[in-house]
Amino acid sequence: MTSAPLAAVTGAEGFIGSHLTEALVASGHRVRAMAQYNSFSSYGWLETLPQDVLDQVEIVLGDVRDPGSVRALAEGADAVYHLAALIAIPYSYRAPHSYVDTNVTGTLNVLEAVRALGTPRLVHTSTSETYGTAQTVPITEDHPVNTQSPYAASKAGGDRLADSYHTSFGTPVVTLRPFNTFGPRQSMRAVIPTVIGQVAAGQHTITLGDLRPTRDFTYVTDTAAAFLAVGTAPAEAVVGRTLNAGTGGEISIGDLVGLIGKVMDTDLDIREDGQRIRPADSEVMRLVADSTRLHEATGWAPVLDLEQGLARTVEFFRDPANLARYKTGIYNI
To answer: Hey, which residues are catalytic here?
Structure first.
């Protein structure tokens, strides 16, 4: 009898990582999930997964900044999904060294472990922020890289390392570049949970930053499916490539707020908060994906549209137990 394939996931305790863990288990994988070491022994969002899912998950505490932690995680894995990262753009203005340590050095540690162990597949996570404001639309993988924040620069550094390990050592890495993912469990540092969370907490005056930028929003289960697609596709279809994952649609933040109000059946009063606005040259004004190459390589396509995904996200935040995990009354940097 053949045992189920083993997938190792960094950043498994987080928003996308916890959904990917569920998707991997649903597809028949065993999962070794790394949550960042902390003195509370907290497993983050993994603690909320159903028991039948957790029965197939080995949770380990570690840190991608530590090579030993990463090597132990990857030992014996059929594939490594590298999602661990510092993600908040505003905090990257304050603590850029931390972003390099986690997003660049952490990625180097993952690459070294996969190279040393001969792991058959590494899925590395990029971000649409590496493109900067769209120069041509929709954005294909050939679009120039233009990093407009320390966060974006650190992610681009990890991407370049992944590319170099493939060309230098034949490391079987594929880079997935999701555009803006949203859904249950997302940090309040992102715009959709910021708005929904404030409304669910009984607020009708919503404080936000710039309402003009446009984004391409993908529901989290569709993003998780994209990770699974590139992690299991034939090597010749994906290895050595960077592939966008997005819907191909875009909406301004202002219009997005209006749509959330519609879904929540609430009239919203929007107030601009100066501390939430990025430096002028750092704001990415437009992002919209061309995911043709991902679709052609794997068959992936998003299932849920924006309004359907928002309805599911609202349902999550309206559950008092879920809402209690968030601090809706402050600016979460």
So the answer is: 151
